[in-house]
Amino acid sequence: MFIDIAKIRVKAGKGGDGAVAFRREKYEPSGGPYGGDGGNGGSIILQVDNSIRTLMDFKYKRNYKAEDGENGKTKKQYGKKGSHLVLKVPLGTLVKDGDSEKVIADLKEEGQTFVIAKGGKGGKGNAKFATPTRQAPRFAEAGEKGEERFIILELKLLADVGLIGFPNVGKSTLLSVLSSAKPKIANYHFTTLTPNLGVVKVDDGKSFVIADIPGLIEGAHEGAGLGHEFLRHVERTRLLVHLVDVSGIEGRDPLEDFYKINEELEKYSSKLSEKPQIVVANKMDLNTSSEYYENLKEELTKEGYEVYLISAATRKGVEALKYAIWDRLVDIETNYETFDDIIEEYEEVKDIEDGIIVKYEDGMYIVEGSFIEKLLYSTNFEDIDSSRYFQNTLRKRGVVDELKKLGVSENDTVFICGFEFEFFE
């Protein structure tokens, strides 16, 4: 089974909480604050592994969580950092946000890594909050929550050349002849289910990657047959080698087949129809091929296509085709589809969402955001120093000024991360 799309949830580890502790050793009964910091939570990292060809592993397990950081300890000892969780993905994997479906990362290089969920920072121990005027702080900082998100992994094969055409025109056979790939080959009328990749060696230091991509049928642009699964893999190829069966044994007109395939490409994406194509008339070894071939070549040559006659079964004409493909590739700039602009836009939106939000909604003053949530859970409201630190931090971060702009008055209720507070100067 070939799995080329998967939906998973990832959750990074929470940072450990800072410790509240005091030095209580012999001869030092009134020692100062002694609490250590919490360890950082583990992150979840996606890593490209060229030995992996599908997203099969993510079909059976949908939830992934990294290790939490340990809490801080006394004697200013730091908690242990949580271990990172590394998820291996195939080359050519797109990572999308599960809600907006915007592209987060484009993994197209061997060994490339991307932190998809960052571990929470460990909280500071009370030793870090000691000042000349606050010599015995009885509060520490809570560890940050790790990032959690729902993501979509989508595999798009990275091949220089894509073999396209109706089922049973000889794509798998041609791939096996051009390269050392060993696709399953049989005389069936349904399409190959699994894309196959092969490396074609032209000369020393000269080679290209070719993919036998599952065959198209009419209505593929609407999802018929393998539909979108097929078309997704064509998007990144630089050159299309369009195979047609000129034997006529299937009872189809090869010229009509050619136009039908290109019509499906056009309906799915205009970019696909604009990709350069080489037309290959296969099965020349059969007696009925000449009539169909002459008609095909005459028509398509007028339209500017190069047409090659081969027999993948007997290998006649295959060597000349290999060099023709290489010559075309040399003239085509390597320019895989990229998503840098979309990724940058996504990150800008994400940064805003992670900030402090102050708003007036449905008659209520509301303050929320990841920073505010962390500050709230780090505060010991029974300790005057901790409460004062909470208030001062809100002022320094501009929360109080924003509330005033919204019209807050003395004794008004302000909801901070769901908790009610009374506003006063």
Description:
With 425 residues, this protein is of the alpha/beta class. It has three domains: 1-155, GTP1/OBG domain (Spo0b-associated Gtp-binding Protein, Chain: A); 161-331, Rossmann fold; 353-422, 2-Layer Sandwich (GMP Synthetase, Chain A, domain 3), CATH 3.30.300. It is 26% helix and 23% strand. The strands form four sheets. A six-stranded mixed sheet has the order 10-11-9-12-13-14, sandwiched between helices. It is elongated and about 100 Å long. Pfam families: DUF1967, GTP1_OBG, MMR_HSR1. This is GTPase Obg. GTP binds at residues 165-172, 190-194, 212-215, 282-285, 311-313.
Q: Stretches where pLDDT falls below 50 for ≥5 residues?
A: 185-192, 217-228, 344-353
Q: Specify the CATH architecture of the largest domain.
A: 3-Layer(aba) Sandwich
Mean pLDDT: 82
Number of helices: 11
The protein's oligomeric status is single chain
Domains counted in the coordinates: how many? 3
The tally of strands reads 18
Distance between the termini: 65 Å
Query: What is the level 1 CATH name of the largest domain?
Result: Alpha Beta
Read across the widest sheet, the strand sequence of neighbours is 10-11-9-12-13-14
The portion of residues forming beta strands comes to: 15-25%
Please tell me how large the radius of gyration is: 31 Å
What is the H/E string?
A: EEHEEEEEEEHEEHEHHEHEHHEEHHHEE
Most strands sheet: 6 strands, mixed
Structural class: alpha/beta
Percentage of residues assigned to helices: 25-40%
The CATH superfamily of the largest domain bears the name P-loop containing nucleotide triphosphate hydrolases
